[in-house]
Design goal:
- Helices cover 76% and strands 8% of the residues.
- The chain is of the alpha+beta class and 608 residues long.
- A hairpin with a 2-residue loop joins strand 4 and strand 5.
- A five-stranded mixed β-sheet has the order 2-4-5-7-6.
- It contains 23 helices and seven strands.
- It is elongated, with a radius of gyration of 42 Å.
- The protein starts with a helix and ends with a strand.
Length: 608
């Protein structure tokens, strides 16, 4: 009764798998109907249908292969020709015609190389290795598989790499090289996980399960076999499912003969359903062995006969000899093609050399005329460039002199000395000494910077901090000062003109903060990198430009900030001759009630 229930469940599983597989194939067929135009995508879809049918309906699969081949020939679609040969190779290997199968794969490689389709070449090499593994020529199987691994690594085709390692593991396992098999699985597993392909993951879990069973770890082996079955069902891969049933019966120890027979019957049905001759032979051999242990000689002979007939087809000397012949023929053909290409290449190189000699004489004559014209153009443009450079250098020198005079603003020096005097008169010697020390350091920095066109951002900010310290002492710490500098700027080699933003900070103090009645006045200077520029943002929460202008008109008449004008010229010269209004942007800030809330200045300095 239990055996009947398990067989019934197996039949239901096969039916569901076939239904899901047919559903996918139907969707692909419907696509070809709704997209009748014969193009590369149409051919690729027909190839997918042929591949999907190769396990369930070889007759239909072959018909679709023929359509792929014919349409690829009519369009001279080399990529499609390679795909068609891969389809044919799969169909022929399923019926154990390995010589013809490998011949198809070798043709696929030739087509793939001619259209530089390395991925198809890697697939064909792997399939040749698979055929040779079935024929128990393990060394040659590894040879072609390792070639496929190199290509897949080059293409970063990780699914292909995983499949290649799994094939190497199968060769090692069949030769009982268990440590090597385990190593191949461990190497390939990261690629299998990265590919997230159910077929590949099923194969790797199956391999781990076999090794665990060999080591006597039945519980762990069953865990991996269950995972392999789950992945195989998701992929609806009949041969994968068949291999899991076979592995359970073949490798698990101490399971009842009746259960083995159920598992093997399921595997045999699937192998027959997919027309997989190698699978039929493997399962029939196991069934013959189980029935012999049960002393059921009739059943044992029956399944041994199935195994013998399949095995003869698979491993006949004729089959092996034909595979070797096909491989040798392909190698010889490739050598002939290479020699032919070499001869043609030599002739072409001779023709090219003759043509190059003729062209060389013509080029030499043309070169003489070109040099004469180029010298004349160069002298004309060089003279113009020198005049432009001289004018620019003169303008830069004038601006630099103005900058030095502006930086040494007598008004600022007078205010600083007055502040020192006041501290001394009030007997605040420590404050006077601190002020004088910072004042002299600032003057020294300004004088030192005047000899350098550019200084590091860090040094420039240190000079600005000295200036702020003096102003805070002068205004009795009426305002706070904060900076934010992108750490990348401080750690990098970024340079700017000296004290480039000092006039804007001075303007914020003298016109925005000095006349404010707020008790929480502040200035924030931010320095960031943006689109090839160093961007300074100076923000204050003073009285704003409009109210400052009214105050200046009342107290200073037609006052104009020379420092700001010079700074604008410095920025323009530094950033380039083309004027850009966005290099310096001044914005009025407003509060919630639309009352003036300070000023923001944004200055862009081009990165060198």
């Amino acid at each position: 009764m239990q055996k009947k229930i398990i067989l019934l469940l197996s039949i239901c599983l096969f039916s569901f798998t076939g239904y899901a597989q047919n559903k996918l194939i139907d969707s692909l067929v419907n696509w070809t109907v709704t997209h009748p135009a014969i193009d590369s995508q149409h051919i690729l879809t027909l190839h997918r249908i042929s591949y999907r049918l190769s396990e369930t309906d070889t007759k239909k699969s072959f018909a679709y292969y023929e359509r792929v081949s014919a349409l690829s020939d009519s369009l001279n679609f080399t990529y499609g020709k390679s795909l068609a040969q891969i389809n044919l190779g799969i169909l022929l290997s399923g019926s154990a015609n390995y010589d013809a199968s490998n011949s198809a794969y070798f043709k696929a490689i030739d087509y793939a190389e001619s259209c530089i389709a390395l991925r198809l070449k890697a697939v064909a090499l792997n399939n040749i290795g698979d055929n040779l593994k079935v024929l128990r020529d393990y060394d040659k199987s590894r040879k072609y598989t390792l070639e496929a691994i190199k290509i897949n690594y080059q293409l970063k085709a990780w699914q292909g790499v995983a499949i290649n390692y799994e094939l190497l593991e199968e060769c090692d396992l069949e030769e009982k090289l268990y440590p090597a098999a385990k190593e191949d699985l461990i190497k390939g597993m990261p690629f299998a996980l990265f590919s997230n392909d159910n077929y590949v993951l099923s194969q790797f879990n199956l391999g781990f399960g076999k090794l665990q069973a060999i080591n006597g770890n039945n519980d762990t082996a069953i865990f991996y076999f269950n995972k392999a079955m789950d992945e195989a069902r998701l992929q609806n891969d009949l041969r994968n499912i068949q291999q899991v049933f076979l592995a359970r019966a073949q490798y698990l120890k101490n399971i009842p003969a009746a259960k083995k027979i159920i598992l093997l019957d399921s595997a045999l049905n699937l192998a027959k359903q997919s027309g997989y001759l190698h699978g039929i032979a493997e399962v029939a051999e196991q069934l013959a062995s189980v029935y012999e242990q049960k002393r059921d000689n009739g059943s044992s002979r029956f399944f041994y006969g199935i195994y013998r007939r399949a095995s003869d087809s698979l491993f006949s000397e004729n089959n092996k000899r034909n595979v070797i012949i096909k491989e040798s023929e392909w190698m010889i053909k490739r050598k002939e093609i290479e020699n032919s290409h070499l001869t043609a290449s030599t002739q072409l190189q001779y023709k090219e050399l003759t043509l190059k000699n003729i062209l060389l004489v013509a080029v030499f004559i043309s070169l003489i005329f070109a040099i004469i014209i180029a010298v004349f153009i160069y002298k004309t443009s060089d003279a113009k460039k020198k005049r432009s450079e001289a004018s620019l250098k003169q303008k830069i020198a004038e601006v630099q002199m103005q900058v030095l005079r502006a930086q040494m603003n007598p008004h600022f020096i007078f205010n600083s000395l007055t502040s020192i005097e006041n501290f001394m008169m009030q007997n605040e010697k420590w404050l006077a000494s601190d002020y004088l020390n910072k004042f002299t350091r600032l003057i020294r920095t300004i004088l030192h910077s005047s000899f350098n066109e550019l200084i590091p951002v860090k040094k420039d900010m240190e000079a600005l901090q000295l200036y702020i310290d003096l102003q805070q002492l002068r205004f009795n710490n009426k305002f706070s000062f904060h900076t934010f500098i992108n750490p990348q700027i401080l750690s990098g080699d970024y340079k700017v003109p000296s004290l480039i933003i000092q006039p804007f900070v001075e303007n914020a103090i003298e016109h925005g903060i000095a006349h404010s009645e707020k008790t929480t006045c502040s200035i924030l200077v931010s320095v960031i990198l943006q689109n090839g520029y160093l961007v300074y943002v100076i923000e204050d929460n003073g009285i704003g430009r409009k109210q400052a202008a009214v105050y200046n008109n009342q107290n200073k008449g037609n006052h104009k900030s020379v420092g700001l004008t010079i700074t604008q010229e410095r920025v323009q010269i530094f950033n380039g001759p083309e004027k850009n209004a966005a290099d310096i942007v001044i914005t009025d800030l407003y509060g919630p009630g639309n009352e003036p809330a300070g000023t923001s200045v944004r200055v862009k300095i081009k990165l060198l």
